[in-house]
Amino acid sequence: MIVVTGANGQLGQLVIQALLRQVPASQVVAAVRQPAKAAQLAALGVQVRQADYNQPATLDAAFQGAHRVLLISSSEVGQRALQHQNAIDAAQRAGVQLLAYTSLLRADASPLGLAAEHQATEAYLKSVGLPHVLLRNGWYTENYLASVPPALQHGAFIGSAGEGRIASAARADYAEAAARVLTLPDQAGRVYELAGDSAYTLAEFAAELSRQSGKTIPYVNLPEADYQKALVGAGLPEGLAHLLADSDAGAAQGALFDEGRQLSALLGRPTTALAPLMAQALA
For the chain, how are helix, strand and coil distributed in percent, rounded to 5? Predict the structure, then answer.
């Protein structure tokens, strides 16, 4: 039995779909905070169980009978380390044979502010001795595609990544890789640095947007603080604006670049390129 936490999220839903291409639905459990909102998952034939990272009793019930668990990192930045510890403890109580954790690209050395809670989770996993595999995910191309509508509206794509190259891949690529790891033998102790086969600067991203949209959309590089202010001015919460600006600043230092091609090796195919994802976003 394979349990996927956070299964109602964007990544989780894709992992469930990828798993169902490899194993029967009877072997898959979708663990979600609010089962009432998981009708689309139940319709796939998988078992839906409640799992709230803040309520250990729900985690014990969700992991009952589980052989493998995918711990998808919580979206609640600032609370994640403790939430992940709760899930890891529950997995250990349940006798889980392998826990796969979605971490961050080169989490142990990343300058991103996001890295701290991933580092804490990785350290905790190591300290408790639960057999585990680390899926250190790079950037989702969708993270930048979300800025396409405002870029088209305002006639510019803004950021603070400078000339930093970003080796992103589609969210579905990372989901498929997670599903592969959950079904492969001998995964305990492995660390996967996962990123796209090709990389781009944000200027090149803007050039591709210009080419496909037929509009001239330049990339405007801002100081990190100014970029954060612009995001807040566009209506983003302060915390999210800080996270995005910090991530761009990290990208300028190479934090989102990797050329090891471990993701495509896991997939057995090239990762999804920017151009088709841009076309989907524009459509």
Answer: 45, 15, 40
